[in-house]
Amino acid sequence: MAEAGIPPARVRCPALAARMVGLAASLPGDDPLHAVGEMHVAPRLRTTTGWRDVGHRALAWTGAADVKVEGRPTKTIPPWDHHGEAVTFCLDVGPGGQRAAPAHIRRGAAEATLEHLPPRATWIWSDGSAEGGVSQGGGGATITFPSGETREVRVPAGQLCSSTRAELCALKAALNAIRDADADIADDPIVIYTDSQAALRMLESGASSQTTHLGISI
């Protein structure tokens, strides 16, 4: 197992139990699994414990015992509710945009893509990150309106979070800032630039396919 890079059972077991505890906590209060996850049952055997005890011990060991679990949405956007007909995604800037390409080639590919975008638009440049991809996440964005006015937004993404979540938090904060701005953007398009392929693919799947409150709100 070590040679194959497979975690041993002593590691895999608490990881799965902790995930189960998180799953139960993310469900609505009236869900049967949520109720089971909050039960306190005296063990019948001293040497045998259930996933609740193992999971809570694992979370305590990692310092995540008091971290709030984000709830799962109980209702998604129906597919017949048309959202985003005017939204397009571009996840490919050609072979020059690949990570393996030299920096000057990637820059040229990005500039060539920019040249084909509307000259008059509201521009969002967003980015997010998390330490090690798993903790202390945060994001920010620079917004440039057609008038030339520029605004910046910053937002925390959570004590425990993925880099993708941090990217989505930054994007949502930028969109909220545009929605609440006094700037006159009329019918000008909004162009968003972010380097998170995972976040874009998640949103590209459509409004009715979102499985998080964050994705649904965006």
UniProtKB/TrEMBL annotation:
Occurrences of domain RNase H type-1 (ranges): 118-218
InterPro entries, per the entry: RNaseH-like_sf, RNaseH_domain, RNaseH_sf
Species this protein is from: Amphibalanus amphitrite (Striped barnacle)
Any one GO molecular-function label of the UniProt entry: RNA-DNA hybrid ribonuclease activity
Annotated protein name in UniProt: RNase H type-1 domain-containing protein
Pfam family, one: RNase_H
